[in-house]
Structures
1.
Amino acid sequence: MACHFKWLESVMKPFIVFVSIIIILSLTGLSAEVSAEGMEKEGEVTVPILLYHRISNDNSADSRYAVSVTDFKDQMEQLRYWGYTSITIKDLVDHINKGNSLPQRPIVITFDDGNLDVYENAFPIMERYGFTGTVYIVANRLNSEGFLQAEELQELLNHGWEVGSHGMTHTELTQNHALVRNEILQSRLDIEDALGIKVFSFAYPFGTLDWYVSSKVFDYGYRAAVGVGNLTNHSYGTVFNLSRREVQGGIDLEAFAELLPWTNYFLPSPPRKYLPNWWLLIQCI
Ligand SMILES: [Zn+2]
C-alpha cells in the first residue's frame, strides 16, 4: 500500500506543481489583460466617442458627412466583434462625476444634426447589435422634413438613447456670442417641452467653442458638452468639451479601427480572449 501511495505521490507532485504554475500564469495573464484595457492616467477614463452625421446611401449626400448603410452595418458588426458595449454621454459623465460603473470596452455612438436616416437606417442596425446612441438635434428643425420627428425621438428614448441639443439653428456660436441664450438655453427648453425629458448634454455646432460659449453651456443648465477631436481619454476637466472622433464616409474597416482602442484583427472573438490560458492549452491537446 505504502509503495502504491509513493507512486501516486511521485506522479501527483509534479502534476500539482505543473497545475499551480499554469494557474499562476493564467492569473497573471488575465490581470495583465485587465490593466492593458484601461491605459488611462489617474483621473482619466478611456471611452471612445464616435461622431456620425448621416447614415445614407443617398449619392447626393456629402461623403464626409454620409456613411453608407453597408459601411455602417459593417462598423457596428465589428464593434460587436471587438466586444464593445455602448453607453450614452450621460453614462460617461455620471462615471466621471459620480463614479458610476462602466461596462468593459465602453463606447459612445453619437449622431449630429438629427437627420431622419438616423432613425430609418442607423437605429435598426444598432438594435440588431444591441447598441444605443446619443443624438444631437437642432431645435428649430424638430419635425421638419428630412429630420427626426418627436415620435421617432421618443422611440429612440424608449430604447435607451440620449437626446441632446445641437443649438436652435446650427449657428457657429464663437462667431455669434449675442445668440448664445437663444441657441443654447432656448433650444434646451424647446426640446424638453417637445419630448418631456431633461436634456443633459450639448453638441457645439461645427465643433467650435471658446471659454464664453462653454461657460454659457454650463450656466444654461447642461451637465456636459461634446466637441470634435482625436482623444479617447476623458476626465473631470473635459466634461464640457468631450472629444469625439468623427467617422467620415468612405473609410474602410482598417481606418475605422484606427479611431479606436481595443481592436485587433488577429485575436479570436472577445469572449474567448478572456478565457484563462489553461483552457486554450487544453484545446491544443
Ligand atoms: Zn452639426
2.
Amino acid sequence: MTARDPHRFVNELDAAAVERLIARLESRAKDKVFTHLFDRYAPELVPGPAGRVLEVGCGTGATLRALAGRPDFAGRAVGVDQSAEFIAAARKFAASESFADQVAFDVGDAHDLAFPDASFDIVFAHTLISHVTDPFSVLREMVRLVKPGGKLAIFDGDYASMTYALPDHDLGQRMDAALVKASFNNPRIMRDLPRMMPEFGLRLESAWGEAVVEIGSGSYFKSFAETYAPYIVKAGFFPADVVEPWLAAQIKAIDDGTFFAACTYYTYIARRL
Ligand SMILES: C[S@@+](CC[C@H](N)C(=O)[O-])C[C@H]1O[C@@H](n2cnc3c(N)ncnc32)[C@H](O)[C@@H]1O
C-alpha cells in the first residue's frame, strides 16, 4: 500500500472521514497554539479598500473568516478548494457567522484554476502547499493569479521536523516518519521555496519560522495525532496493534502532564515582480 495524503485525496474519503477532517480544520482554527501563527501574518493579507484576496486550498473557510473578521479588512475575499464538501461547509459557516457578503467560495483544483490572469491583489495558501501533487505548478498558478506588484503569501509546516516523544526512541522516530508520510505529500517543501521563488518571478520580502511546541499539555498535537494516525494503518506503514498503543501513549502523556510534541512552521511573504 502507499500513502494517500488525506487532504490531497479528500475526494476519495467516505462521508464520516470528510466530517472528521471538517471538524479538525474548524477546531485547529480555534486552537490558540495555532491561531497566533495566522495572526502574525494576517496584516499582510489585508488589501486596500475594494481589493481582492484569494485563498487557494481554503478548506472550510476558517482562515478567510478570521481574515474577514479583522476590523481593518475592507476588501473582498474568495476561497477555492478541490472538495465540494469543504466548500459547502465553508459557505454554511460563512453564512451562519455573517461573512457571506465579504467572502465567496468556489470548487477548483489549485493546479489549474479558472480565474483570469492577475485577478487578485493578494493570493495566499495556508497549509495547502504541503499537500498538493505538484507544488511548483500550484506556485505558478498563484503567481499567474496575482497582479504584477501584488503579494503572495505561503504558510505551512516543515513536517519533516514534526516529532512526538516516545520512550522507545527508535520506534518513536519511525512513527514520526510514518505519520508524516501518511499525511503529507510534500513534508519538506518549505525548505525549497526560498530557492524556487525567484525562478517564478517572485521576490521574497519577508520570512520567518516558529516552532509549535506542546510540553506537558497537548491540544493541537492531540487532535493531529487522533485525526491522522489512522492513515498510518490505512497506508500500510504500521499495523493497528502498533499505531493504537502509540496513540494511547500520547494521550496518557497528555493526561499525566508528561507530553512532548513539536513542529516548525514557516511564513513567506513575496511580491510578484
Ligand atoms: C490542511 S487543509 C487547510 C485548509 C485551510 N487553508 C485552513 O487552513 O483551514 C488543506 C486543504 O487543501 C485542499 N487541497 C489539497 N489539494 C488541493 C488541490 N489540488 N486543489 C485545491 N485544494 C486542495 C484540501 O482539500 C484542504 O481543504
3.
Amino acid sequence: MRTSQVWNWIYHRGVTEFSAMANISKSLQKQLEANFIISRPDVTSYQISEDGTRKYLVRFRDGNEAESVFIPDEDRGTLCISSQVGCTLNCRFCYTGTQRLVRNLSANEIVSQIMIARDDLGEWPTPTDGRKITNIVLMGMGEPLYNFENVKKAVLILRDPEGIQMSRRRITLSTAGVVPLMERAGREIGVNLAVSLHAVTDEVRDKLVPINRKYPIHELLSACRDYPGAHNARRITFEYIMLKDINDSDADAKKLVGLIHKYELPAKVNLIPFNPWPGAPYECSDWERIEKFSSLIFKSGVSAPIRMPRGRDIMAACGQLKSASIKIKASERKKL
Ligand code: SF4
C-alpha cells in the first residue's frame, strides 16, 4: 500500500519531495528522505524548433549528457528518449554514431527523461485523457538492446499502472539489429519493435549499419519473423533512411518488398529523408525519388509513409542527436 502511495506521488503527481506526500506519515517521510532521493537531472540546453519540436539536453549526476526530443502532432505527442551516452555501433548516417560510447544510462536516467518532458509540458497530475505524451520511442542516442537490463526495468516502470501507465502498444524499441537479444526483448519487454534496416543487400548494409557484418540481413529478418507478439495488428516497423544514390533506387524498393514477402513479415516501412549533420558523408535523396520509392512499396500492399523531418533547425531530427550538438556553431547549424 505504501509503495503504491509513493509511486502515485512520484509518477502521477510529479512531486520531487517526500514532504509533499500528504497521505504518508511524517515519520515515514523522514525515513524515506534519509534513504532515497527523488530528483531530476539538469536540463543544460532546451530548444524549441519552429515546428514545435522540443529538444532537451539532459545532464546526469556524473556530468554525462544525453538528448531527448518531444515531437507534437495533431493527434499524438511522441517522446524520443536515449538509452546510452554515445553509441558503439557507428552507423554511418547517424550523428550519434560519431560519438564514442561513454556509458549505459541507468533505468532511472531513462525514466527521468520522461519526467523532465512531463514537467515541461505541465502533465501533472497525470491527465485521465488528452495526454500530451501519447507515445514513447527508444530511438534516441544508443542501442537499447546493448543496455538490456536497464531498458527493461525502465520500460516496466513506463508500463506499470502505478508507474507512467503507458500501454506497451504505445512504446517502441528501435534496434539496429542485435539479433541474439530480439526474441528475449519481445518476451520480457514486450513492446513494439522497430528495426533500422536502411539497406536491402548485405553489401550496402555492411557499410551503413556495421553491426550487419555480425548479424546479416538473413539473420535479422529471421529474428523479426520470430519476434514474439508481431502480427498484422502489431507490425514491425522497418526504418529506411533515404540516401541519394546509395539505397534509393527502384530496384532497392522492389527488393525491400521482396524481402518482406519472403520472410512473411507483418511489417510497415518508415521512409526517413536523411537529416544532415556537420561532416555527414551522405546527401538526402531528392523528394521525387523518395515519393517514387514510397509508391512502389505501397503498390505491393506494404505501408511505406514518408516521415516528415521534424526539428531539423535545432538538430533534433532522426539521426541528428549527439550530446555535443550544443557545441555546433550557429552558422554551421544555419547551413544545415
Ligand atoms: S542509428 Fe542508433 S545504433 Fe546506429 S549509431 Fe545511431 S544511435 Fe547508434
4.
Amino acid sequence: MPLTAAETALIAQARQLAREQISPQAARWEQERRIGHEALAAAVALGLTRLQVPLAAGGLDFSFACKAELAEVLAGGDFGFTMSLINTHNVAAKLARDAAPAVAARYLPDLVAGRRLGCTALTEPGAGSDFAAITTLATRCDGGWRINGAKAWITNAAEADVIVLFAQTEPGSGGRGIAGFLVDGRRAGFVREPAYALGGQHSIGTGGFRLTDYLASDDELLHPPGQAFKAALGSINGARTYIAAMCNGMVADALQVAWAYGQQRSSFGQRLADHQGWRWRLAEAASELAACRLMVSRAAELIDAGQATGAPAQLAAAQAKLLACRMADRQLPALAQAMGAEGLREQHPFARHLLGARVAGFVDGSTEMLLERICAVMGG
Ligand SMILES: Cc1cc2nc3c(=O)[nH]c(=O)nc-3n(C[C@H](O)[C@H](O)[C@H](O)COP(=O)(O)OP(=O)(O)OC[C@H]3O[C@@H](n4cnc5c(N)ncnc54)[C@H](O)[C@@H]3O)c2cc1C
C-alpha cells in the first residue's frame, strides 16, 4: 500500500529533524549519558508519539510502513534516540488499544506530550531470551495484584514511569501464567536503579528497576494470564521490522557521510571517490542496503495487510532483522575504514552507529532467536 500524502510529509519532516536536531546533538547526549529530551520535544510537536494511536484517542493512526520509514530516517540521526522515542510511543499506542478507558485517560496525555516516558519490561536479571522463565511474581490481593521482582536491560528505564510490565502469576507454568500490567513508577513499591553505564548508546536510557509489594489495581491488568504471552509476542514482528529499518538508517547515514568525504579528500593526486578500490566499497554497502530495505518493505506490507502475527510475517520480520543487523555489523566498519582516521572523530556517527548495530542484535529477539524462529517457520 503506498504511503499517503500526510505520511510522506511526516517522513520529510522527520528527515529534517534527524539532520538538524538529532544528529548534531547525539554526541553530546552520549557525553552526558542521557536521553535526548531536546529533540523529543520536537518529535512530539511533529506527532511522532501519536503515530499509531487510534484516531478516536487523538492519534494519527498511520500505517506500519510509515512507522518503519520513520524509524529508518530517525535512526540515521541516532539509534538510541529512536529507540527511546519508539518505546514511549509503543506504550501510548498499547494503552489506547488495550487499557481500560480510565487507565488510558490517566496516562495517554502525558505520554504523547513527552511529559512522561514509557517502557515495556519483559527482561529480568535472570531471564532474557527465555521470556517464559521470568520470575517477577504477581499474586492476587484485595482489589488487584501485588507484584514483586526485578526488571533489567529496559529501554527508557532510566526515566520512564509508565510501564507495561510482564509478570508470572503461576510459578512453573511458563508462558501460560504470564500476565501484563500497567505499572506506575511514581507509586510506592517501585524503586529505579541508576541508569546503566555502557560502552555507548546512552540515549536509549537503558536501566532496570525493582518492585517490592507494588500494588496494581484490577483495571491495571492489561492482559490476563493466558493472554499476555501471546500479546507480548503479537507485536514482536513489528518491532523486528522497525529495528531492521533502523539498521538500514544507520548504514544509509554512514554511507552518505563517507561518500561526501570521498568527494573532497584526496590521495595520490585524485579524490578518494575517484579510486576504484575506494568507491567499490561504497557501492557494495549501497547494494546491500537496497536489499535490506526491500526486506523491511516486504515485512511492513504483511503487517499493514493485517497479518502481523502469521507465519509469513514472522519469517519476513525475522529475516529482515537478521540480515539488516548483519549488514550493519559488516558495512559500518567498512564505511568507517573508508574515512581513514577522520572517521574516528566524535562528530562523525560511525562509532555510535556501530554500537547501535550491536544493540540491534539483541533487542526484540537476538540473532540466535531469529535463526530459531526462521527454522520454526520452515518447519524445523
Ligand atoms: C540496550 C538494550 C535495550 C533493551 N531494551 C529492552 C526493553 O525495552 N525491554 C525488554 O524487555 N528487554 C530489553 N532488552 C533486553 C533484550 O531483549 C535482551 O538482551 C535479549 O532478550 C537477550 O537476552 P540476554 O541479553 O539476557 O541474553 P541471554 O538470553 O542470556 O543469551 C546470551 C546469548 O546466548 C544466546 N542464546 C540464548 N539462548 C540460546 C539458544 N537457545 N540457542 C542459541 N543461542 C542462545 C543469545 O542469543 C545471546 O547471544 C534490551 C537490551 C539492550 C542491550
